[in-house]
Amino acid sequence: MKNILFATFLLSWSICVFAQSVEINKNSIRNKLNTNDYNGARDELEIAMKRFPGDSGLVYFQAHVLLRFKDTVGALAKFDQVLNLNPLHIKALFARAHVLRLLGKQKEAIADMDKAIAIDPRDSAAYHNRAIYKHDLLQYKEAIADYSAAIALENNNCLYLANRSAALFDYSDYPAALVDIDKAIQLCPSVATNYAKRGNINRMMGRKKAAIADFNKAVETDSTDASIYDSRAFALNSYGRHTEAIADYNTAIRLDSTDSDFFFERATAKFDAGDFAGAVDDMNVVAKAEPGYANNYYNRALAKYKLEDYKGVIEDFTIAKQLDQSFNAFSLLGVAKYKTGDFKGAIADLDIALFVYKPDALSLYYRGLAKSASGDTTGACYDLEKAADKGNADARKEWKMICK
């Protein structure tokens, strides 16, 4: 009997020591993660996992370390492992959903938040995060409903209010978006991006002065956030204040030169200001960063057209059309081909422009010139006369020279 009791005591003692040892390791690793010592955490995890294989808490930490080292696929595999070991590990569900979003798998992230809500129906963060993933998928009504569920559970959370405001903005319900962002600002007056969000709402509601005042307040609150300068620049450019807009884009790029959107938007401002060469320079940067962005090639072609770089126009419009068939590039493409002496190609593109889209004086004029250069005087005179009737003075002069 004494031997049995002693054996039971030893077993209990061993389990206790084992559990304490695991917790000591976890606390040490947690401290390293909290102090951003990811290399140290990784090294300690390797040792701990050899001693305590299959411990879901240690695997969870492994996943976070991999995520810090930008190994999203590896992190996802580890979070899968955690949830296989413990399906009710709610922190792992949140973390895996975050990784899935990084990988563009929002539907799977939503499924994880569904599970989190099933575990705890009063977890406001689960509704909030599910709303974010639905928002990513442009499911605005569904996102607004989830943001509302989160706010019903935690009605003074300024992040929830600000994000519902953003969804309402994207849903074009500007008055409701304004109500939410006003409350978010009242609750958290130090959050600079909320002033920028309100600035965008005021811009869409036609309140120029209020919009600029909000953007200025955002910059005053946080002068290090590139996105705020970007938002103010967009508004300034839309108001025709191109020089000020370019200055703000310059600041945004100085703060964050990795965001190609800033270069694309600055190119637009430069184009609007008449700096076509500067616009091309910025769009060259975008083309390197995002070679599959059709709109960039289309806009660069427009800038090159202004610079009379017609070969460049043809190259960029051709790429844009290959990437996105919806672009109407045929008119200017036809003009560029005429300018480079490809009269047959010009007529073919201008035929499409005039047949598919509304006939315009420019297309008629250049098709007339291309037909004249190709020896089709009858067709040339018809097009030039039609272009002249639409108000093209150059077409009238050519008609008088060729057709009278």
Characterise the protein shown here.
- 80% of the residues lie in helices and 0% in strands.
- Helix 5 packs antiparallel against helix 6 and helix 22 runs antiparallel to helix 23.
- About 5% of the residues have low confidence.
Layout of secondary structure:
Elements: H1 2-34, H2 38-51, H3 56-68, H4 72-85, H5 90-102, H6 106-119, H7 124-136, H8 140-153, H9 158-170, H10 174-187, H11 192-204, H12 208-221, H13 226-238, H14 242-255, H15 260-272, H16 276-289, H17 294-306, H18 310-323, H19 330-339, H20 343-356, H21 361-373, H22 377-389, H23 393-403
Helix pairs in contact: 1-2, 1-3, 2-3, 3-4, 4-5, 5-6, 6-7, 7-8, 8-9, 9-10, 10-11, 11-12, 11-13, 12-13, 13-14, 13-15, 14-15, 15-16, 16-17, 17-18, 18-19, 19-20, 19-21, 20-21, 21-22, 21-23, 22-23
- Give the CATH topology of the domain at 328-404: Serine Threonine Protein Phosphatase 5, Tetratricopeptide repeat
The major β-sheet equals:
none
Tell me the radius of gyration. 31 Å
CATH H-tier superfamily of the domain at 328-404: Tetratricopeptide repeat domain
Spell out the helices and strands N to C: HHHHHHHHHHHHHHHHHHHHHHH
At CATH's second level, what is the architecture of the domain at 328-404? Alpha Horseshoe
Quaternary status of these chains?
single chain
Distance between the termini: 126 Å
- Relative helix content: over 70%
Would you tell me the structural class of the helices and strands? mainly alpha
Tally of extended strands? Answer: 0
Assign an overall shape: elongated
**How many helices in DSSP terms?**
23
- Unreliable parts: 5-24
Class of the domain at 328-404 in CATH? Mainly Alpha
Mean pLDDT: 87
How much of the sequence is in beta strands? under 5%
